[in-house]
Design a protein that fits this description.
The chain has about 240 residues and is of the alpha/beta class. The chain has 8 helices and 5 strands, in the order E-H-E-H-H-E-H-E-H-E-H-H-H. It has a single domain, classed as Rossmann fold (3-Layer(aba) Sandwich), CATH 3.40.50.360.
């Protein structure tokens, strides 16, 4: 069974939502899938207030921990993470950005989760016009700094305000892309630990390890690295 966590950046069942459903349908063809879904802003209604509680004292000190914790738990338990957003002003929706801001404590520069280094992820972005690249990059950046091993990018210019208005030729092209990516995703999830992590992850983890050995200003982060054995040569990959 493939466990999948999907985060929708708004509650509309528009182009982005429909493309996500195409992926789920395709992934379910060859195996059983278990899907956990979060819809923003309903499941994460608050903006980060910049209190640094999660960074300096632990994530349980976030004033919005009751909303953040179920999402983090689902991400950690999943085989595949799917982050989605239509283009809002050349970037992700405000709700998606608010969630990513809340999850900065999971970055390699703070307290990465060892299980994240075995994960596969997919970003899905749609637009009626421009902004696919920058919007995708915003979500990919967080996935990279969480340590996610393999990241796939679904970028779709639908040239329509509604999914119903996407012409048949463009839909067929999208479906073909989804089918191709879904097969690659299945393979990546199956391989997991056999896949090499990216050079970026190896270099950045090594840099952060060196920094944490000298870290006397945030013992919450340092203690996390020590408890994982990462300051004594152990690695999560």
């Amino acid at each position: 069974m493939m466990k999948i966590t999907v985060v929708y950046s708004n509650a509309r069942h528009g182009s982005t939502w429909n493309v996500a459903q195409l992926y789920l349908k395709q992934l379910a063809k060859n195996q059983e899938i278990q899907v956990t879904e979060f819809t923003l802003p309903k499941d994460m209604p608050s903006f980060c207030v910049g209190c640094f509680g999660c960074i300096t004292r632990g994530e349980k000190n976030c004033p919005h921990f009751q909303h953040v914790d179920p999402i983090v738990s689902a991400l950690k338990a999943s085989d595949l993470i799917i982050l989605t957003s239509p283009v809002y002003g050349m970037d992700v929706s405000g709700s998606m950005k608010a969630l990513l801001d809340h999850l900065c404590f999971m970055w390699m520069s703070h307290r990465p989760e060892s299980v994240m280094f075995q994960k596969t992820a997919l970003t899905i972005v749609t637009t009626a016009g421009a902004g696919l690249g920058h919007t995708t990059k915003t979500m990919v950046n967080s996935l990279k700094f969480w340590g996610v091993r393999t990241i796939f990018k679904g970028k779709y210019a639908v040239s329509a305000l509604k999914w119903e208005d996407v012409d048949a030729k463009r839909r067929a092209k999208i479906e073909k892309s989804v089918d191709r990516n879904a097969r690659k995703i299945e393979k990546a999830v199956q391989l997991k630990e056999k896949e090499r992590v990216t050079l970026f992850t190896r270099i950045f983890f090594w840099m952060m390890s060196g920094m944490m050995k000298k870290n006397d200003y945030n013992l919450t982060d340092r203690n996390h690295w020590e408890n994982q054995g990462w300051l004594n040569g152990a690695k999560p990959f």
